[in-house]
Amino acid sequence: MRSLGGALLVLGRVALLVALVAMGTLALVRFAPGYFADAREMDAQHAEGARAALAARRASEGSVAALAGSVAAGWLHGELGVSRQYDVPVWELIRPRLRVTFSLLTRALGFAWLAAAALAVPLSGLGGRRGAAAVTLGSAMLLSVPIGALATLFLLTGMGGPVLAVGLVLAARDFKFLYSLLRREWRTPHLLYARAQGVGSVRLVLGYLLPALAPQLLALLLMSLVAALSLAVPAEVIFDVPGLGQLAWSAAINRDAPVLLAVSLLMAAAVGLMGACSRPAIRSSSGSAADLEAA
């Protein structure tokens, strides 16, 4: 019963987040300048039809509540709507871009975790304070640079693409958490005793550290995904990657409410679910002496 109640509470929080994002997105789009405007009004051949279509839109979407009701009615019938900009069903625009964004996120996360682990594991285990301080300073400097500026620099200099830009920022962020976790674990009495007995670092990492820190690493992975989603939007726009980020930016510029709402709700649901799933992992314990003895 407790697990069912917890699951319902999580779903309720995610639903509330999605509802707030939906209302905020609709309000921003509805009151954006030029929402009830159409370039075809300037064309004498199509001006009359465009004005009639805009009049019908004003009647059905005159307020945020009316716009929300119209969108909700379509969603309840399994229809995400039709793009105002491209005049095609929204799902046909989102589906191919989901794969592009997923590929970008997975490659950037893989690069980030390999780079962060390659630095955090030896520095935390060997006790190299100077090396750790230098890497920490470098990661702090990298995090102080906006992702848009970093992506623009890579684009202009040809140094790398969106995967490298997003991956570097994630690696700088994840290194701090990984180093802190590993440094704390290396100082536990069990590991100090094992190292004094001559147990190798590789055996300790694979046999004890990874299993003991699995909940915290899972939480870090989920939060890294949340950060990667926010980083992917400007990276896709700057590098002209046909993913969800670029689609959302184009929809915002062109006041394409159905597309912008669908993408915003997908991202809000993903962020809400990943954030909710990371909480129990953070609260979980990180291992015991029995785990070390078994290793």
In short:
This protein has 295 residues and is mainly α.
| CATH topology term of the largest domain | MetI-like fold
Proportion in β-strands: under 5%
What is the tally of helical segments? 13
**CATH class categorisation of the largest domain:** Mainly Alpha
Into which percent range does the helicity of residues fall?
over 70%
CATH architecture verdict of the largest domain: Orthogonal Bundle
CATH superfamily of the largest domain: MetI-like
First-last Cα distance:
35 Å
Derived from helix and strand composition plus strand pairing, the structural class reads mainly alpha
Q: How many beta-strand elements?
A: 0
The largest sheet is:
none
| Low-pLDDT sequence parts | 39-46, 285-295
Essential attributes:
295 residues; mainly alpha; MetI-like fold; 2 domains; disordered C terminus
How would you characterize the overall build of this protein?
The chain has 295 residues and is mainly α. The chain is 79% helix and 0% strand. Helix 10 runs antiparallel to helix 12 (257-283).
Please specify the SSE layout and strand pairing.
Layout: H1 2-30, H2 47-60, H3 64-76, H4 90-126, H5 129-143, H6 147-157, H7 162-186, H8 189-196, H9 201-212, H10 214-239, H11 244-253, H12 257-283, H13 289-294
